[in-house]
Design brief:
Blueprint: H1 3-16, H2 18-34, H3 48-52, H4 62-74, E1 82-86, H5 93-98, E2 107-111, H6 127-136, H7 140-160, H8 169-172, H9 174-193, E3 210-215, H10 233-244, E4 249-255, H11 316-324, H12 331-343, H13 350-363, H14 368-374, E5 378-382, E6 389-392, H15 397-407, H16 412-426, H17 435-455, E7 467-468, H18 469-476, E8 491-493, E9 497-500, H19 507-515, E10 518-521, E11 531-537, E12 543-551, H20 556-569, H21 579-585, E13 589-595, E14 615-619, E15 625-629, H22 640-648, H23 661-670, H24 673-687, H25 693-704
Parallel strand pairs: 1-4, 2-3, 3-4, 9-10, 12-13, 13-15
Antiparallel strand pairs: 5-6, 7-8, 8-11, 10-11, 11-12, 14-15
Helix pairs in contact: 1-2, 2-13, 6-7, 7-9, 7-10, 12-15, 16-22, 17-18
Length: about 700
Amino acid sequence: MDQVEYANFAIQYAKDHPEVYAAYMASKQGEKLISKPTHELPENITVWDNAFKIEFHEPAKFLTGLIDRLKEVASDSVSYNYLAVVQSSGYGKTRSICELSSKGIPLIYVCFRSKGSTGYPPATPMSDIMLKELKAAEDINTAHAAAGQWIRAMMKTYYEMDLFSKPAGLLSKKESEAAFWNKVSDSKKWIVENKISGEKFGLSTSKQKIHIFFDEASSLFNKDKTNYGETNIPFRAVRRALRDNRLYVVGILTDTNSSVVNLAPWKEMGPSARDYNLETHKPFIYIATTDCLRNVNGIPQIEHSEGYDIIRFGRPLWSSYWLAAPDDTDKFDSAVRLAIHKLLGGASAWSQIEDYRLKRTAALALRASDLVKAHMGTLVAIDKERKRLLVTYPFEPVLSEAALEVLSEENSEVEILRELDGAFQSGGILEAGCQGELVARLLVLSAWRRLICHKRCEVRVSFSIRQPVLDFLDELIVKFPRKKCLQLDGFRIGFSHFISLTYKPDKETCKEIWSRRGAIVFKRNQKGADLAIPIIRESDKALGALIFQIKNYNSAKQNRFEETHAVKTLLSLEVMFADDCCADIEKNYLGIFVHLGSAYESESGTNVSNYDNGKLSEECDSGNRLIIHGLKVFKLDDNHESIFKNLLRAWNDPGRLCVTDIERKCLYQLLPSGRWMKKQKQLRGQDQGKKTKAEAVNKRKAILV
């Protein structure tokens, strides 16, 4: 959904659902109460300055690439003298660009960070005055003049204080920063009083261009129309002012909000043309800093008995915070609290955001950029139109630890699953065929969460601490045949998230996933398995695995075939793992075939297998296979079963769709001829009994919506 479609949807939705819109308006007031800036959290008051001074590491030479890009936009042959850096919080956008000053690049840091933001550093002096002045402008010309005055005041002060020889001091010393901005304020007044324009400014062009770094640049976006019908006046004014002073400055704009990658409003929102071939500037600079502090001294390098070693993985935020925190006994918990704070968009607990944000997020905040901006989603791609985003959540153990802590709050897991169920029913979040895999992943994660919570009755335990495999299986399956699986005695397990693979994992990959507290999602249409969780024997470090094959067919006949087939495929490890893995795993694994079944009656009249009572079959000849039918075989918390049944339900059941001749032709192009004939008969049968063509079309539209 692009921005214009989103705006139209939001307006119509607010009219149709006034109670949701009321919750949305209440949330805007409530955010001020529940959100708290990161640097104002009690445990962070003395930590953030030290964390920001941790030695900069760039395994992928990101900084070198950034400098090369800055040289491109600084060239007089390029039309635009600015670029954008956009990424989720914690990847080091600000830290990496501030590192430019240590390379001798003249840099002025301007931060528009608002109160309540979970980022760091806080807003710079005078930034709020600058922003208010730009937003108060009645038209673009007035704002353009004001932006030019501020930029010229910064340039004049930089020249007068001769900061070219010591650019780093402006960023590292609070006294120098305060003195600089006080002088900028005086210079701004002088420029206004004497009506100094760009032509009369007369600065030397022989010096290196000053790089003005606008952090939290999305604050410049103001989508409320003025009396003149113009939008985004502050942003457009800054862009014009940068171009006016291109002989002296280069602009860098950063934010977690994808809007700044445009460096121009969308076509529908502003008159500026965009470079479609991307030769002027790329819309997105990827920040490759994941795991960059993994091997730094002071970070746990081997598996820690308390699970602290996960701090070395993921975005550098966690590792730098660990290195800067003074208290060895509490800094891991403090880092997890920080992750919760950021994951929840500024709140410290799920209960704080439930009333204010849940409905708004579900109904009105459908843009992927909201995930990047406030909920730690990672931006991986932007299309050429700069409207659509590809957002993912990378495999970060610390963020997963935080998510499990949130799920462990009272009633939060049920509420979140209900929201997931509602999203699934209202339009779907998965491609067809993935319902069973989704529920299986939720089941094993829920079992792991309950196991750790039970352990906490005796002592404080994190979700990253290993536990006996048999204890986990006891928590997962009702009446688990523990005595039949003694080959797993002595093995330990620990996972908090799933990692998708597109290849057969070898031994090194399995051990890396083990160290990251991950579980494996096999490649699409993988024969023999869908999920696997690495396990390791504590005594000799032997590798093993729990292997899951998930089926959710609504045909009893198809299920019987799959059950027979599963007995064979669960023994064929070579189709799932690389050769160097098979020798170890074949002695130390448990294969679990799970047929969850569709717990509903199909409108098309198809026979549906419904395993409400549950059934557990034991394959005792080898002791390493279990066959499970139905949800009741699994241990479930209260209210979970009905939600999981809804998630398993085939909302895209072909029996409920009326298919037109045009759609038949499309299917003919997609399906092999043998399957087409069978499908054609089925679809013809569905059309029979329809009263009118209009009724059939309306029914189909209603289902698809």
